Every structure is written in C-alpha cells, then in structure tokens.
C-alpha cells in the first residue's frame, strides 16, 4: 500500500512563507497525479493545487499567484510553496495521489490515497 508523509506545516504570521513536502512511496502505478488539499473544522475538504502525470498544474482561485506546486520525480516528493499566507489559509493540509488520468484534479473524490496531514496556522 502506498505511503504519503507530509511535513513542513507550522504556525506563522500573515504574509509569511511555508513550504510543505510530501514523501511518496510504494506508488501502485507509473501514471499518477498528486494534489494538496486542505480542511478546516466543519468544512469540506478543499482542493488547493494539483499536478498531473505530465506536469500540468491546477490551482484553486483562492491561492493562484501565491502557492506553487511542484514534483520531484526522482525523489517521489511533492511540494507546495506557500507565499503571502493569509489567516484564511489556516487548515490541515493533506497530500493525495490518484492513478491514471482525470480532468477533476481539485476534486478530492478522484484521489485514492491520502497522507495524515500537516497543520498550517496563519495568524493576523
């Protein structure tokens, strides 16, 4: 079974920067897509950014221009560079993987395996 391990969360001030990492192992196929999602208490899990097997990226409108997703294929590591953080970015952030192809990269239902999450807290 695949394993996804997030790191890099923390507590920061508005305007600060964080970089999340997700180390992936035992992936079940060579064609896959990965994404970052976040969830706050009482809210549905929200797609933040995702990258497909070709390296094409998709972002939620709320993070465009501030967040950047990237994938190091040699190390099977997914990253999320988060700049200009805002209090509304506060959430548990999850890494996820899905297999094959999809045009719904920000829909959590298309992903089949998840990490345990890393907390990001942004204070004003």
Please describe what this structure looks like.
This protein is mainly beta and 124 residues long. 0% of the residues lie in helices and 51% in strands. The strands form two sheets. Strands 2, 4, 5, 6, 9, 10 and 11 form a seven-stranded mixed sheet that branches. Strands 1-3-8-7 form a four-stranded antiparallel sheet, with no helix packed on it. The protein has no helices and eleven strands. Strand 7 (67-72) and strand 8 form a beta hairpin. The model has no long low-confidence stretch (mean pLDDT 96). The chain has strands spanning 3-7, 10-13, 18-25, 32-39, 46-51, 57-59, 67-72, 77-82, 91-99, 113-114, 118-123. The protein is globular.
Q: Features of this protein?
A:
124 residues, mainly beta, 4-stranded antiparallel beta sheet, 11 strands
User: Helical element count?
Assistant: 0
Cα(first) to Cα(last) distance is 40 Å
Radius of gyration over C-alpha positions, nearest whole angstrom = 13 Å
Strand coverage percent: over 45%
Give helix % range.
Answer: under 10%
Number of E-type strands: 11
The outline comes out as: globular
| Order of SSEs | EEEEEEEEEEE
Mean pLDDT across every amino acid position: 96
* Unreliable parts: none
Major sheet attributes: 7 strands, mixed
Structural class: mainly beta
What is this entry, summarized?
The protein is mostly beta strands and 124 residues long. The protein has strands spanning 3-7, 10-13, 18-25, 32-39, 46-51, 57-59, 67-72, 77-82, 91-99, 113-114, 118-123.
């Amino acid at each position: 079974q695949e394993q996804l391990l997030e790191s890099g969360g923390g507590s920061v001030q508005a305007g600060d920067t964080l970089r999340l990492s997700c180390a992936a192992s035992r992936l079940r196929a060579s064609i896959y897509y990965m994404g970052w999602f976040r969830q706050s208490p009482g809210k549905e899990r929200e797609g933040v950014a995702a990258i497909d097997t070709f390296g094409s990226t998709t972002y939620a409108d709320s993070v465009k221009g501030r967040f950047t997703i990237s994938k190091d294929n040699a190390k099977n590591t997914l990253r999320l560079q988060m700049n200009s953080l805002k209090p509304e970015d506060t959430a548990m952030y999850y890494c996820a993987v899905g297999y094959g192809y999809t045009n719904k990269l920000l829909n959590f239902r298309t992903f089949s395996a998840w990490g345990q999450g890393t907390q990001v807290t942004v204070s004003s």
